[in-house]
């Protein structure tokens, strides 16, 4: 029988926590960064390589997978883990964020979201019940409740109305999930940048009861200072014995700042997307490999990292690949960026255990060469 989903904090440093999430498919060391595998693949990466870099879990996208190749097809083929050759934990988002972004193709009401596929225009309904059905068909280990991602900026009244709808959908998501054996369900705190609404949302979700709690609706244009303030005012209202997940974040400085404020889990397309657009996150800061200053630089990308992409290829060669639009350039920079992110998470976990996270934050370089 599958073991129960659990979370244990093993070390603290102020509000920061290091811990272990236990799932039927393996442990997740926290704080954790989840590489994004939108359509069943972390772009430009082999699954085994993603694992070797230190990833305990990846993220899949409900919206994209339900449209192509289809959740029912993936289920017939043995589930998402088998389909993408990733036997480790997977978290799937609810699909809500992608649907909300289709402003010209969707309509929201109490029942859910009716929308037309961006692929072929076919009509679909995504509601809490269907989102749970799709995620369970995929076989996700951590399933997200369906929510409305409140746009920014929003007035207090608009954020309140949106949050209340998300809370009603959260209750329906919990009922449809029905304590599915071997899976975990996370609720999502909403409320824009208004602390009072975030507190109300957290209270409602805690009353419903979830395996973990996400903070949604941030990193949508509100700025780092406002995001940090919102996180800092939200985490104290979430249970100490459940993981906390800041959705869609982010830049390395955002991750460190959120960990300092009590967050345990992160995901973001930034390391993979940046790898495809010529940006590299390094111990020296962010490098733009398109810049001419790299054209004759024989140094490796980042000798501090134990990753072939980081140490075995010169900056001059990577500059050439990027300027020539060679596929290998995207592959190597994505590989390197994911190595940087996982090494950052390792250093964060070790610093929490040593009580030195603030010192690590001060030492890290997040500057950009443009």
Topology of helices and strands:
Elements: E1 6-13, E2 16-23, E3 26-30, E4 32-37, H1 47-52, E5 58-60, H2 62-67, H3 71-76, H4 80-83, E6 90-92, H5 96-101, E7 106-108, E8 113-116, E9 123-126, H6 128-138, E10 142-144, H7 156-177, E11 184-189, H8 195-208, E12 212-215, H9 224-234, E13 244-246, H10 252-260, E14 265-268, H11 270-276, E15 279-282, E16 285-288, H12 308-311, H13 315-323, H14 327-354, H15 357-363
Parallel strand pairs: 4-5, 4-14, 5-6, 6-10, 10-11, 11-12, 12-13, 13-14
Antiparallel strand pairs: 1-2, 2-3, 7-8, 8-9, 15-16
Helix pairs in contact: 6-7, 7-8, 11-14, 13-14, 14-15
Number of helices: 15
Residues in β-strands, percent: 15-25%
**CATH architecture term of the largest domain:** Alpha-Beta Barrel
CATH topology of the largest domain: TIM Barrel
How many structurally independent domains? Answer: 2
Report the sheet with the most strands, covering strand number, pairing sense and barrel closure.
8 strands, parallel, barrel
Number of strands: 16
The fourth-level CATH homologous superfamily of the largest domain is: Queuine tRNA-ribosyltransferase-like
Contiguous low-pLDDT stretches (5 residues minimum) are none
CATH class of the largest domain: Alpha Beta
Helicity, in percent?
A: 40-55%
> Which value, in Å, is the CA radius of gyration?
20 Å
